[in-house]
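Entry:
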Amino acid sequence: MATKYVQIKNDLDIRQRLEADRTRLRKIAGLDQSPHIHRPVKHGLTSEERSKVTVLFRGFTWMHEDLIRAVLQGWGYRREKLPVPDMPAFQVDKQSTSPTLYASSGDFRRIFYEETDSLYRLSALLTADHEKAEWCFVAGLKDSVNGSTVFKQWARSWARRAIIQNAVRVINPLPMEKHAPLSFNSHGKTLAREQAEIAAVLELGPFERFVYVMSVLESYSDQDCSVLLGCARRDVLAARSRSLQRIEMQSTFTVSAR
């Protein structure tokens, strides 16, 4: 008896129809394209090629590398261990592969050369001593060149931060520390007290001076100041208030450490 339904005689016919419909749907969805990545063809090494092929290896322990080298040598292959990159090699790679992303040692050297006056003034304001200021300047340069990797746009702020960190280590300012009047004299060298705005900052106590330079002149947040100085935020707030009052009383000039 004739019927309008599709006649399926066996399982093979079902599988063929399913595969045809699956192919049609994959074409509609764009899934039948050839893959972009395929496994490369493996070419075996023949005995005739042993004298022409050099097997390179690295990344194992030294015992495994010696074992691999001995095995390859016993088989008649040429073998060579790849050298392990050291820290200078990583620095060269960082400078050559991503010159626009990270600051290189040359970038920091250029910053310290171009902004010598500004960076030294920052160090002098913090330490109030020529010799200590010079030491912090040199130490800041070394820390910037040999320190952690930073983005290029942060290089200048990182250089100033390095000087501040070294000045904190040298002076070790403490909250509410009693201090004697500064002499500004170090083996015949004197800081420029004739500049009223600088002299007003130098007259502050060590802790108030650090807080004023970092928070007012360098625009560090209270949290950053407290972390770098190792104190509570309330100590930073109180020291800034005292320093602003004393600066206002001693000088009408606005001091800039930059």
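The beta strands are 54-57, 78-81, 185-186, 189-190.
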